[in-house]
Structures are given as C-alpha cells and as structure tokens.
Specification:
29% of the residues lie in helices and 16% in strands. By secondary structure, the protein is of the alpha/beta class. Helix 1 packs across helix 2 (95-109). The protein is globular. The termini are far apart.
C-alpha cells in the first residue's frame, strides 16, 4: 500500500475578511490544531487564527510521524510563505514552543521575523525535564502523562485507544527530548513572552527567564494558574496578552 497523501501542516481556524495579523498556534505533544478552536471566539475581528497540525493526529492520523523539531518548523514555514503576506504572532505550548521558536528563526532568516514569539509551558530551548519519558514502558509512560492532566481519561483507560495514540505521543516527546538549538544562532529581535502554569511539574519556573537569551528584544513572563495546561484558564486574557492588546 502506498503512503497516505499528506494533508498539509496548517489549518485556518477563522474566516477573516481583512486580517492585519496572523496568529499561528503550535500544540503540545499529542495535541492537534483543534486545541485552539476556543481561541477563535475571543479573537479581535482583524486577527486570522492558524493552528498547526502535526502528522499522526486528527485529519492526519495514519500519516508518517515526524520527530524532528527543525523539520516540523521548516514544513510550517513553507506553508506560511504560500499564504497572503501578513505579520505573524507565534504561540507554542510545550513541544509547540520549540517548533514556534524554530519557525521564528526561519522566518527571520527569510526576512520576515514575527511580530512576537510566545512560549508556553516549556523550558528554554535545549532543556527538558523527564527527557527519557518517551523511552518508558507503556504503563509508566501513561502514568506519567496522566499525572500532568490534559489526557482524556477515555483514552488513558482504554487499551485500544492507548495503543493507537502511544506512537504519536512517543514521537512528539522524542522530538522534544532530542531538540538542540543550532550552534551560532543569532538572537531574534522581536519581543518574547513566556507563560508558565503555576505548579507545572515539567517546568522549573526559575529557569524560564533563560528564554530571554533567545532575543535582543523585550522579554516578559506571566505566571498563570492552571499547571501545565494553563492555556484552558481564562482564554480571553491569555489571547489578549499574546496579541499585545488589552482585554475587551
């Protein structure tokens, strides 16, 4: 049987007549573009929302997995450059923060540095707690993920569902664990905002400020309630901050 035809890496989640900025959102390990559907309802009318769809989930289930952050970013950039030209704001959660960072650097190298880079629930590039979690036996692997919250109990408690999703999750976590920034990379110049969920067991709050080193521009950190998956807490305020605007 031949390989399944690839469906592409981006999904436009809003219909905007005259957008002035494109907000591109990169999901966490195991996550899909649908993780950001709730953002559409709180966006200003001039912002286009694009969600990144990694292979192996949603409408790309069954496609060959990609476990390399730089390759992920390269595929996303190729699609963004085919879209109508707009300023970009990039938001990445956990693994997505690294893919967003690589995407920002590629866009910068092509003359279109994003307006802002936003990194959520992620240690600075090249660092990771529980780096070997993708190698753990299945029971330990799932117990670790469930302890974070954010895993649907219907999946975690169903052996057939677990079997379906395990390869995708392991691939994403392997990509995160293996990622290292390119040697000699010039800092970005755009502002960088970091978002940390209070009590997140995967991210040492004291280390997050090291993200400031990826840019010569402004850096800020917002510690929010909600742990590792804080992005589902007060979505309107988070989106407004990501866009650098006041909450309506």
């Amino acid at each position: 049987m031949g390989r399944m035809r690839e469906r592409g890496w981006t999904r436009t989640l809003t219909t905007v007549e005259d957008p002035v900025v494109r907000l591109v959102c990169f999901p966490h390990s195991g996550g899909s573009a649908t993780a950001f559907h709730a953002w559409a309802a709180v966006l200003p009318p001039d912002v286009e929302l694009v969600g990144v769809q990694y292979p192996g989930r949603g409408d790309r289930f069954g496609e060959q997995l990609v476990d390399d952050v730089a390759e992920m970013a390269g595929r996303v950039v190729a699609e963004l450059l085919r879209m109508p030209s707009l300023d970009h704001v990039l938001f990445g959660h956990s693994l997505g923060a690294l893919v967003a960072y690589e995407t920002a650097m590629l866009l910068r190298d092509m003359g279109g540095e994003p307006r802002r880079l936003c990194a959520s629930a992620c240690l600075p590039p090249g660092d990771m707690q529980n780096r070997d979690v993708h190698l753990a036996p299945d029971d330990e692997f799932w117990a670790t993920l469930c302890a974070l919250g954010g895993i649907d109990p219907g999946i975690a408690e169903n052996s057939e569902m677990r079997e379906l999703f395990t390869p995708t999750l392991r691939s994403d976590l392997r990509a995160h664990a293996r990622y290292r920034p390119r040697a000699g990379t010039r800092p970005l110049t755009c502002p960088v905002s970091c978002y940390h969920g209070d009590g997140d067991p995967l991210v040492d709050e004291e280390r997050i400020t090291e993200w400031a080193g990826v840019t010569s521009g402004a850096f800020r950190l917002w510690v929010r309630p909600g742990g590792h998956f804080h992005v589902s807490t007060d979505v309107a305020a988070l989106v407004a901050d990501v866009l650098g605007r006041e909450t309506a």
